[in-house]
Design a protein that fits this description.
Distance between the termini: 31 Å
Bound molecules: zinc ion
CATH superfamily of the largest domain: Metal-dependent hydrolases
Radius of gyration: 20 Å
Number of helices: 10
Shape: globular
Oligomer: single chain
CATH topology of the largest domain: TIM Barrel
CATH class of the largest domain: Alpha Beta
Strand content: 25-35%
Amino acid sequence: MQRQILKGNKILFGRPGKCKFASGCVIIEDGLITDFTRNEPNISQSEIINADNDYVLPGFIDNHTHGAIGIDVSGCTIKELLKLSEFYASKGVSAFLPTLTTNSKVNLLGFISTITEYTSKKTDGASILGIHMEGPCISEKYRGAQSAESIVYPRIKDFKDYISASKNGIKTITLAPELPGAMETIKFLHQSGIAINIGHSDASFSICMDAFDNGVGCISHFLNGMRGFHQHEPSIMGAVLFRNDIYTELICDGFHLVPETVKVINKVIGPERIILITDSIMATGWADGQYDTPCFSEPLVVKNGDAHLLYTGSRAGSTITLDRAFKKFIDFTGTPIEIAAQCVTINPANHLGLNDRIGSIEIGKLASFTFLDADLNVVRTIVKGKTEYQSFIK
Ligand SMILES: [Zn+2]
C-alpha cells in the first residue's frame, strides 16, 4: 500500500461552501483520502507532502472545455489529449470534460472513440471524467461560433449511438429544449444518468420549466448564446431565477460576462449554484493575433485574450484557464476563497453525479488537490495521490 501524509496549515477539509480552512494532516492510501488528523500521525514509511502555508483545495474540475495550446478535442489525437491533460493540470485542474461542438454524426462518433480510447488508458495530467457534447442539437439563432450545417433535431437513436461509442462515457449533453423531439430526448438522457444542460437556446420560460422537471439541471455558459430576459417572456434567465435547484455555468473572463453581471449573478443566484467553466478553445495559451484554425470556418482573431470570428464577429469561446477564472470570480465578487471554492469543485461534481468520488477533501474520496499560493497562483496539482504539476517558484 502506498501511504502519503499531506501536511498543511490551510486545508479545506469538508464540503466547500460549508467548511473553513484548517491546519492538520490528510492521510492518503493508494490515492484515496482515508483520514484527517489535527496532529501529525506517527505512521512510518509514508511520503510527506508539505503544503506549508499554501491553500489546499479539492482538485479543480472543468466541466466545459474545448481545448487549449493549439489542440481542439474535436478531432485531436491521443497524444494531443495527453498534452492537454498535462496543460490543464498546470492550471490547477484535476479533472475535466473534453467538450465536443456541433459536427456531423460520423465525425462526432470518431471524436468520441478517440477520447474513449484515451480515457481507458492510465494517463498523466488531469483526468478525463467523460465527454460533454455541446451540440449538435442547438438553436440555429443562438449557435454563436458553432457551424450551422450540422445542427440537427434531437433523436434518441443518435444519442444511443453516441453513448455506445463512448462506452457510457458521455457525462453531459448541452441542447436546446425548444427543438422538436427535445423533451423525449431529455427524459431518455436523464434516465441514462447523463447530466443535461440547456445551452445555445431560444427556449421560453415554460419550456425551461418542462425541461427542468424532466431532468435538466444546469445552463451552459449562462446568459451567453441564449435568449435574454424580457418582461413578456422571462425565458431562460427568468426560469433559473424562479427555481432554486438549477446550476449555472459561468465564463468568468470579464468579456463573456462583465464583472457587474458576475456580481449580480453571485448575489441573486449564489455561489452554491455557480459552476465556473473555461469554455476554452485551442487558442488558449496563444498570443494575441489572427489565426486560421480547423475548428472554425473563418479566421479567429484574439485581442487581449478575447476570441472572435473575423467576419461574423461572434465570440468564439474563451482563452481563459480555470485558475484565472477562479481568481477573477473572487476579484469581481469579493467572495472568500473557501466559499468560491465550491464553484470549481463540489458544484461541478454534484451536477455530474460524481460527488461521492470527487469535489471535496473528505474521507473516502479521491486524493486530488489544488494548491494555491497567497496570490492564488497554482503551486501544485495532485491527481489521485500523484503530483501532476508542481511550480518551482515559491
Ligand atoms: Zn462551449
